[in-house]
Every structure is written in C-alpha cells, then in structure tokens.
Input
Amino acid sequence: MSFPLYQSPGTIVFLDDDVDYLEMLALVLPRPWPVRLYLRPRDCLNQLQQEPPLWEADRWAQQQLIDRWRESGTPLIPQILRYWADSTERYAIARVCVVDFSMPSMDGLQALGELVDWPGMRVLLTGQADEQVAVKAFNRGLIDQFVAKQTPDISRHLIEVVSRLLETGHQRMSQTWRTTLTPRQNALLRVPSIGAALRELVAKRWVQYVVIGQPFGVLGMDADGHVGWLQLEPVEDLADLAALAQAAGIGSAGADDIRHGRKLTDVELHQSLGLTGAATLNPAFPVGREELLLAALFTVPPQFCPDPSKSFGHWLSQQPGRTVVD
Output
C-alpha cells in the first residue's frame, strides 16, 4: 500500500437489520470514530446519495489551493491552514460504509448498487452461505472488502478492516495533491520502506495531514488542533539546504550539521508563513531503510493554527450520542 498524500477524518456508516448488533457496535467501536447506524436501507441510502456533491466540493476546494499556488505563487502551507480553519463539515462526510448482505427488504449488494456516485469505501458483512457472492463482488470491484459474520472476535476484526481502509485515504484526493510533487519526490514516496515509515509516523501524531512538494514535507494536525510540520529532505539535497540555511542567518556550525545529515531546518516553513527571526534546527532522522530521505519535526506557531473550535476533537465532542436511526 503506497503512502496516501491526503488524509482527513470522516464518518463510518453501518447498515444492518439487526438492531442488537448495531447497538453492540455503538458500544465497541473506537470512540474517535464518528459513526452513523442505520436499521433501514432506504434511510441509509437517502443520506449517502446526498453526499457526492459534498465530496466534490471538498476536492474542488483543495484543487483551488493548488491552482493559486501554481498560478500566482501563493504558498501552500498558509492556504492549507486556512482551509482547515474554514469548516468542519468535511468530518461528517461518510468515508466507509459497512452493509449487511442478508436483509429482508434488499440485500447488501443491491443497497450498495444504488450508490453509483458515492465514492467512499464499501464493506460487505456476510453469512457463511454468502461468501461466494462476496468473493465475486470483490473481484468485480463492487466492494473493497468483505467480512464474514461468523469470524471469531468479529468486532475486533471489523475494526481492523475499517481502520485499514481509513488509512488508505481517498485515491482522488491523493491524486490532486500528487500534482504538487516533482517526479523525484514522487518516486521517493513510492519506495515501500519510506511509505511504511511515514504511515507509522503520521498515525502516531495526526488525525489529518497533507503531503506537499514545495516545500517538501507533511503538514499535519492532531485532534486538538495543534499543527506540525515534517520536513522531508532528500540526502542528495543536503548541501543545497545548508546553503539556504546560511543565507537565512544560520551559522556555519548549524550549516555543517545540515550538510552531514545531523539536523534539518524549518527555514522553508518560515518563508511560507512569512515569519521573521531565526529558523530552527532540529535533529534529523532517516525515513525508510535506503538512506535516501531524512526528516525532522517542527511545530507550527499557534497563531497560524486553526482555532480549537475548528478541531476534529471539538467537532466530535459536539456530535449526538450513537443511536440507531430507525
């Protein structure tokens, strides 16, 4: 699995005609997940069929950031920070839909078949007799995963499946941001060990992030609205970064640390935000096993971060309790 270039929290939808099963899920699903639980297919479908324009509006908002950067040179980092601060509506968009195959009014594949334009991930819950149907649906690309209800410790397994799907991100969003990368940057991120290291690193720190190419790095925000910057630096570019650091006022000792891969600087972050004063030097560490890429973590000053009321954690705390829509 390649490293997704864009990740944002979203809602997980469950459709099942067994109210007891849905109420059990309400109790055991991870608390940081926004969840909607539906008992009737039509209620679920009516909601999801309204969402494609919301997906497209969110993607278009991101595309406009890139267009302004490309056409007028407007730095990407402050634009992304404003985008994160503008609205929390994107958190309510369903990213994954989990549907029971065996329902009396329509089966799960019929239900998913009505979601022609909905671009989220699809999971089918099956009984033992339905597994061949699920395999065929998976092979035809109608679903992204299927889970047998008779699987031991089904709740834990289902959580693992949904978690993996959430980690894959949305392909079209990643494609949008890939246009900011140079071919060399893109090639580095496709190295398996680099992608795996970055996935592990961002998962520990942020609930949403975006990878950009100028400057090269990952801008991420945690659930409380704190923003960090992961500076990425190809090893072969260390001499250029050292020269840039010296031109920005970092002394020869600091430049030597950069040149030898011991430290990196956030001078490009400073330039993007229009900050004055000395840039920071932080310890560098390798990303992946190939010794091709270094990284260093920096904190974005609070005055540039979205208001805490726009954070995912605050939005989640304002949501109603998990109840089954009947």
